[in-house]
């Protein structure tokens, strides 16, 4: 009993596509873990940075990072002294961070003479 093949067998195609999907998702996870995880706020009109900025990350628990290196709030001025005053500073703050803590960090940065201070958000 021979059967004519009048249909395309898509099962191998689906298998290959699932394997490719797993590979893409796995590599995307490894690539994105290079940053400190923060739950960013969302904004509809967010612009991309023009220069390579100094990145300050403020977590909910109060931890502060300068370019992914932990820094004490008191030592922020000394850590930023290595950068020119014209360097853009981007503040990444967790959405649950108290406003008072965020304002204190931005005020410290502006008090040091940095004028290009912005907040990083996710585009919604």
Tally of DSSP β-strands: 7
Q: State the name of the first-level CATH class of the domain at 42-123.
A: Alpha Beta
Strands across the major sheet, in which order? 4-3-2-5-6
Average pLDDT confidence is 81
Q: Please report which band the strand proportion falls in: under 5%, 5-15%, 15-25%, 25-35%, 35-45% or over 45%.
A: 15-25%
Number of helices: 3
Largest sheet: 5 strands, mixed
Low-confidence stretches: none
Q: In CATH terms, what is the architecture of the domain at 42-123? A: 2-Layer Sandwich
Q: What overall form do the CA principal axes indicate?
A: elongated
Give a topology summary.
Elements lengths: L10 H22 L9 E2 L10 E5 L5 E3 L2 E2 L5 H5 L8 E5 L5 H13 L5 E3 L2 E2 L1
Parallel strand pairs: 1-7, 2-5, 5-6
Antiparallel strand pairs: 2-3, 3-4
Short description:
The chain has helices at residues 11-32, 76-80, 99-111, and strands at 42-43, 54-58, 64-66, 69-70, 89-93, 117-119, 122-123. With 124 residues, the protein is of the alpha/beta class.
Relevant terms:
Nucleotidyltransferase, domain 5; 7 strands; alpha/beta; two-stranded parallel sheet; 5-stranded mixed sheet; about 120 residues
